[in-house]
Amino acid sequence: MPTVHIVVKGKVQGVFYRASAKKYARELKITGWIRNTEEGDVEAMITGTKEQLKKFSDWCSRGPKDAVVNMLIEKEQPETIFDSFIIMH
Q1: Which of 67, 81, 76, 77 lies closest to 12, judged by CA?
Q2: Of the listed 26, 36, 62, 70, which one is catalytic?
Q3: What's this model's pTM, rounded to 2 decimal places?
């Protein structure tokens, strides 16, 4: 299955972005992780079908209601197997 690294830039910290993303990822049944970066962005590494990844990416470009996404950067990665979807600290 495809694996994608995503970086989300904008007002994405302090708006429940990671928790909301985790909930949506579990609904989609994709695996991986999400975390805040020191630069104020959010980054994620996710594995799923192309359709699942597209839905998650589309959600990431909007985020939860208080987020303001300015840019979404996606890069395909070698397939990585994750047990679940977690928030990394």
Answers
A1: 67
A2: 36
A3: 0.95
